[in-house]
Amino acid sequence: MKILVLGGYGLIGDAVIGRLLRDGHQVTGLGREVGDAGRRRPAVRWIAADMSKLLAAEDWLPVVAGMDAVVNAAGALQDGPRDRLDAVHRGSVVALVAACEQAGVHRFAQISAIGADLASPNPFFSTKAQGDKAVASSSLEWTILRPGLVIAPAAYGGTALLRALAAFPGFIPAVMPRQPIQTVSVADVAEAVSRAVAGSLPPRLAIDLVEGNARSLSDVLLSFRAWLGLPQARVMPMPAILGRFASVVADAVGVLGWRSPLRSSALAALADGITGNARSWNAVCDHPLQPLEATLADMPAHAQERWFARLWLAKPVIFACLSLFWLVSGIVGMIRQDQAADILASRGVSVDFAHICVLVGSAADIVVGAAVLVRPFAKPALLAMIAITLSYLAGATLFVPSLWLDPLGPLVKTIPGLCLVLVALAVLDER
């Protein structure tokens, strides 16, 4: 079959594509940035497009032409500079369904979410439900799959946060540790999609994908810690106010383009519990969904998983430290311009040139210190930090080489800062 997968490089979408390729299908993936995906999945034909801008059936017709089935694995957690929930979850789905009906697409698999409800005050769940309604109201052979907490070898968003909390040194911090959760393996979600597009499931089916029994968030975190091979630790309940504060900070950095799983939508979902009807799947399929223990056993953790878990919470600290260091450096240089220029002038540099160097250097420090906090500008800012630091070192070596022997080590101390920039570059990617 020819199958289109929306959000094909996401946590679920990538697993779905892998399964469909193994099934022998011809797969086309769609997403906003498909460069990396094309290198990782060269067997897939990739289309670069932003779903939030495909809001009419005519926009989708060239995309779905010739397709036998469509799988919608795209989604967003919360509105932000790069995400518009209503457009992605509802508007584009309404247009896509109309295009599929016109183009004669046979089957449509919609990846929804546990908790999707038109009456939900959470925009994530209400817009998801609106998209589901558009699919269910169509003439297509549709399947709506509502997975619980999806566990996969890949990790970002909420699953990355779980690993990071589980790897916390000494104890495991958790807000609302008693909330019930039902997980599902991403391989089981891909299996369900495979059966849906093949027509092996009853048509016009909306079904939950969750393990048989619910467990507390605390138990999930302890399972992840054991999976990482780390010493046992106690789960330490955190005050609810700390969770609310974290969500306020996460929503703020979301405006800057960072997709934190601690945003208010995620915490609201956790407060309601992540549970569904486990029996509904068993009633239509002879392939039982595996519990969390089996899911983790199928993807054994190694050193790279422990590295990731430990570095994940360090990442915001790294970027905050870099921003603070460069901003303070630039501001102090501006405020104490004469004293900074005197350091260069005392070593034979002309006064005018020294003042120009201080002004330009301080302004550059402030610009990159602010830019590194904005996700679209983070990589250019980090590269600029490297260039500026190397320029400082080269200029100082050329004009005032004695600074290398200064007892306070102003040049020597730039080397660790440069190394931290390299670490930030290494951990910049979110997915």
TrEMBL record:
A GO MF term: protein-containing complex binding
Ranges of residues in domain NAD(P)-binding: 7-194
SUPFAM superfamilies in the cross-refs: NAD(P)-binding Rossmann-fold domains (SSF51735)
Protein name, UniProt field: NADH-ubiquinone oxidoreductase
InterPro entries xrefs: ComplexI_NDUFA9_subunit, DoxX-like, NAD(P)-bd_dom, NAD(P)-bd_dom_sf
